[in-house]
Amino acid sequence: MPSIGSGEQGGVGGVVRIIGAKEEPPISAILLIRVFLPVVLVACSIVRPCASSFLYLLLYLCLPFVGIKLRGYLRILLVLTTLAILSQFVFQIVLLSLPPYGYFLDEIQIFQYGCKNITMGTLFQQFSLIPLSALNALDIMRWVLPDLVLFAATTCVYYYTHNKTYTKPKRLFKSVYKKFGSYVTLTLFLVTAALEPSIINSAYYLIFLFGCTAWSLNIFSKRILIFLFAIGSFNAFLQILATYVYQISLGRLFIDFNFNMRLLGLVDFVEYDCTKDDRVLVINDNLKLSTWLSPVAILLLFHLTVYQIYFLLRKDPPELMVSGENNYGSIIEQQQQHQPPPQSSSRPPSTITTASTKHLQLFTTALLKTLNLFIKSSYIGTNIIMMAWSITYHSWLTFILLIAACLLWMFPNQRRAMLLSSPILVIYAEILLLIQYVYCLQYDFPKFIDGINLTEIGLAKDPNCFKAIMVKSCYAVMFWITLRQYVTEKTTTSSLIENAAQESFRVVVSNQPAELIVKGKEHWLKSILIKLWIWVVAIMLFIIGLGGGDKVVLYRIVYMALFLVFIITFQLSYNCWRRMLYSFWLTVIIYSMLVLVLIYTYQFEDIPQYLNKTGIPEQLQKDIGLEKFDTGDLFVRLLTPTFFLIITVIQLHYFHKDFLKISEIIGHAAEEAPPEEIIVEDNKNFTKSIKLYAKIMYKKAVLVYKVGSEICWKLLEIHIGKIVITSVFILSVFDKSLLHFPLCIFAVIATVSLQTMLIHLCSIYICILFLLKMIYQIDYIEHSAYNNDGCNATQQNDAEWLGFFKIDGERFNSLISILSGYIGLIAILTLQGVIKIRRQFRRRAAGTDNIVFPNITRPDADKGLIPMVQFLVNYIFHKFGVETTLVTLVLVIGTRLDFFSVLYSAWLVPMFWMSRKQLQFKIWMPFITFLTILLPLQYLSSVGIPPFLCVDYPWTPLDPELKGWLFLPDFVAPPDISRLVPDFILLLICTCQHKVFRAEEALEGEAGSNDEILSNTVEGNLNPTPDFLSTSHTVREEQKTLNSIKKSVLLSFYWLTLGIIFLTGTNRVNLFALGYLVGSFIFLWEGNEFYLREKVDIIKRWNILLSYNVFVICIKCLLQLVGCVFLPALQYNFCWLIQLFGIACLNKFKSESSYEINRGLLDGSSNQQCDVPHDEAGMVWDGITFAFLILQRRIFFSYYFFHIRAGIQIKLTEYGKKVECKN
To answer: Where are stretches of biased composition, namely Low complexity (predicted)?
Structure first.
């Protein structure tokens, strides 16, 4: 049979043949020998603590030294168990033959020790020979069954392994165990020492510390390991024997249990009492779970150390190495050396095996690169662990770690500083570990010495010693890794050191396919982190500034101020923002360290009293954010600033330079990659076909995503300014206060001009208000101090009039509810900054910034449905801006229905009648000026005068409904400021149309003309629009679909408008409805012949109908004064007038007495005589009618009307000819 190291068995194939060799023990044999038999031996020893069971324990301890050849070992075990069974049988026969049963055992007294009489029965009991009288069934089984069970188990193992010789253990298990067994054994040393800290167990902990230190110093040799494991196994051997002897009743007599024995490490798992029967096992139920697990860990540790020594002493032939460690300390892949080809086999290689090997290789490569990255970047983890250690276990000793971590973060070359300081850190960490272990011993250490609190220093016993020792030891692992990195770097060349220092996050890989995949994933992940990590830090900065629930403190306000500086600079100047990033992050880091140190040190006992003596009262300390926390809550409180500090340092040291590189704006336009051509190939393989079509669908989805996202970005670029100023105005309206009046001014003026400058002013002003409202939440400021009682009809607060509110649990439940408007606005302003910067990156061509589809012009709109949609997206407001403005004006009138709606009605009268040119040059700019002045005045009217003036308004005695209709300020019922939102939307639309007017001539070539066509006819070649009524075969399919839509809309819109007018007349029963009915009947009676009139006559007649609609709107606005103020008086004497004109008070912004007046609730008898349906007084149908009338008039002015007119004329001519033929 060939040897393991022979050429025949080299490589992977050799390993496979070795695993399947016949001389290797099967897994069942290994389980029987190494698991089943030891478990039975230990169980039989534990359930019956006596001298005979002590022999079983000795055999268990000898088992690791036996190896695989168990024949002699099993025979000895069989002989012992057979003798024990026979002895028990003979002993019981003797007791039964000498009645009474077992009387002589207690009569023969040998000697007396303390309260215990040592009799003949006591000696026999040590050999498991006892009388079974007065015992329950469980105790009888405990004394008798162990020998029988062990005999049966030994027999099974013996016959299973009989005549079988196993000369070689499994090579795979041996390879894995040799590679990782030492680390597992050291870990078990730690666990064993931590379960039950004692003087004996301290040897295990010292072995663990010495082994880890040796590994970190790169002197982790076989000789050291064998020496350490030999000491550990010998200590475990003696401890197992001592612990077992201590559980035997006779052994307990000579060792009085006291505190010193527990300190030594001997625990009484079994309790004995002079007054109780020793045959009954009494378990000590006062022990912790870790104490019970301690002997189990010692037993495992003994076996593991013996096996590990055995493997370390073996001299095996060379093995195939898959991975290892270089002299640099990083895990790398080794090149496989040339191996002789294995002997040919008749069995072909398996495809599945090849695929599995490929996946395994990829996984192994990724794992190795991850470990390599982890080891190279261990200095970062060490710094993080230092901070985690300090906040997990608060003391002055760990405070040194916190200060050291903060100082090391500040070094420019933090990696070199951390490596140089790693020896000192390891020494200090091991001192802390030893102190913790000593204080976990079973000894009552003093808490105070000469008035010094040792607990605060860190000299105290932890409530959960096992957890404390394990956590701190795990923390120290990172220290050892960093020290090993430092030691190995000292032995390498300077080039390797330089590369490692400059490229901490780079993993060098070869050109193997698996490594290339890993490299691609690595670079992809790093690019994502570089782009997003800065925003992770910014969001965390915002969360910390806003955190703390309802409690606002000064140090969080400073965090919020830093966040706002970050955001404002980003919004105002991208270049300045990039230049200040380094100093900003440095400031944030220093401040975070200061906050962390202050909170940390404030938890010590004498610090608050010291601050009081320095002149900082306790209330001010709480306002600053200095507060003592419970032990459980302290970790959570310290975790947030610590975590933020860590991610900020990572951003500064590891992502900042790369971010500056990728964020630099390039001076040329970014070229868009052309869409990748999708090729479909025929493939008969079903699996490959599925993959191919999945790839095609993925490419299509990516293409759709790119196109859709680009369109969305362009739309945002065009409209983000309008979104911002609208959001600013809405914030000022729905959070009405004097401090928000400047926001109203900024928003109103920004719609007209100076938009960029005013938006920047808004950003600065909002950030100032944000901080002021946070400062106002501090307990030092009392909200009630600004109350004004007795000045007016209601209690007013000057702070609330300004805009400052406290968290009271009623109106505002939290800080976020007070600042939510600002938060949303800051997010929108930041989005605007992102869009602006993205546009600078993209470098849009001049003249295309406000165009979504720059290649679409007016002639393209008639070529198909998609070009038409694209054209409308580009120029819909250019085409229908005036009509949109007029319809919005009518909506504002119908929404407000107060004095200002009357003023708007006065503007509507000339605006709907004038031509487009007249509107542009005569009325548009004055109307914008009117709105610009009116909006701030209305805002001030709603805010009112300051309460501290204690002055009543002159119109206070007036009727409340009249004051509401006039929009007059009032202390009791101030005007509803939400009425200003429709006015602002109207102003925004008007300013947009004004920009269209100014750019109309420049856009005429791309967007087409907006001239009003008043001529009766136009030559076919002069009409820029194609004939959509034609059915020519030369028309493309796309154009046919568009022509069908045009026919449906343009031919039916006239009749649809008349139908709307008819519905407006029939839905109401009043005088105004009659006019609508008459107008609709006149136009319906005329039919299609209306199209054949002169163009001027058509427009004139249509304007008459439109004038009536505007007249009704104006009259209804005026009647609101009657309905809201004089309706109660009219109900008694002029009910016919109310019903004739449909008079009612329509207050759409509040539910007050006006609704009750409208429904006649003032007098029960009058309700029945004068009942006006509330819905008939509205202006919804009037507004809809106006929109249809104005749009139909636009159709009359367009070139499409000539095609409609020609088509109707042809139809009427054909119809006339058919009638003549019939006659």
So the answer is: 334-350
Q: What is the distance between the alpha carbons of residues 84 and 90, in angstroms, rounded to a whole number?
A: 10
- Per-residue pLDDT, 907: 93
Distance CA 158, CA 150 (A): 12
Assigned token pair, 1166: 């009058």
Would you say 1134 and 914 are in contact if contact means Cβ atoms under 8 Å apart?
A: no
pLDDT at 18: 31
Q: Count CA within 13 A, CB hemisphere, residue 1070.
A: 22
Phi, psi (deg, nearest 5) at residue 456? -70, -30
Amino acid at 348: P
> Terminal CA-to-CA distance of the chain, rounded, Å?
120
- Which residue has 């955190």 as its token pair? 547
Angstrom distances, CA of residue 1065 to CA of 905, 1074, 1077: 21, 6, 5
Q: How many CA atoms lie within 13 A of 1126 on its CB side?
A: 12
How are beta strands 331-333 and 448-449 bridged, if at all?
unpaired
**Amino acid at the residue 742:** P
Q: Are 1053 and 1034 in contact (CB under 8 A)?
A: no
Q: How far apart are CA 498 and CA 1163, in angstroms?
A: 96
- Give pLDDT, residue 507: 40
| 108's tokens | 């023969």
Detail the DSSP E strand segments found in 385-464. 448-449, 452-453
Q: Token pair of 633, please?
A: 């809550």
Write out the two tokens for 674: 């052309």
HEC letters along 298-318: HHHHHHHHHHHHHHHHCCCCC
d(CA 715, CA 1176): 41
- Could you list the mean pLDDT of each consecutive 10-residue stretch along the chain, which spans 1223 residues? 34 32 59 86 88 88 77 87 89 83 68 64 79 82 89 88 54 62 91 92 94 90 90 93 84 60 80 73 84 92 89 60 36 36 42 49 65 77 91 92 90 87 94 94 83 86 90 94 89 54 43 56 79 90 81 90 94 90 93 92 87 84 85 81 89 88 67 47 62 85 88 88 93 91 92 88 93 90 78 73 84 86 93 88 60 84 86 87 93 89 92 88 92 93 85 81 84 86 93 88 76 74 77 69 86 91 86 89 86 86 92 89 76 74 72 42 46 72 93 88 83 72 65
Give me the long-range contacts of 1082-1091 (CB less than 8 A, separation at least 24). 1083/1058, 1084/1058, 1088/1208, 1088/1211, 1088/1212, 1089/1212, 1090/1054, 1091/1204, 1091/1205, 1091/1208, 1091/1209
CB 125 within 8 A of CB 279: yes
CA–CA dist 835, 713 (Å, integer): 8
Kindly report, residue by residue over 646-692, the tens digit of the pLDDT: 899 889 888 888 888 888 876 544 444 444 444 444 445 667 778 78
How many Cβ atoms from other residues are within 10 Å of residue 846's Cβ? 6
Q: Output the pLDDT for position 131.
A: 83
The upper half-sphere exposure of residue 1205, i.e. CA atoms within 13 Å in the direction of its Cβ, equals 20
Closest CA to 763 of 741, 743, 737: 743
Coil, strand or helix: which one is 448? strand
H or E element that contains 541:
helix 513-546
Phi, psi at 720, each rounded to 5°? -65, -35
pLDDT at residue 681, rounded to an integer: 47
Q: Find how far residue 658's CA is from the centre of its chain.
A: 24
Q: How many Å apart are CA 507 and CA 505, to the nearest integer?
A: 7
Provide the 3-class DSSP secondary structure of residue 542: helix
Q: Model's pTM, two decimal places? A: 0.79
Query: Please, how many CA atoms are within 13 Å of residue 440, restricted to the half-sphere of its CB?
Result: 27
* 404 contacts 432 by C-beta, under 8 angstroms: no
Q: Phi first, then psi: what are they for 323, rounded to 5°? A: -150, 160
DSSP letter at 898 equals: S
CA–CA distance, 277 with 280 (Å, rounded to integer): 6
Question: Rg of the chain over CA atoms, in angstroms?
Answer: 46
Q: Which two tokens stand for residue 881?
A: 């801006």
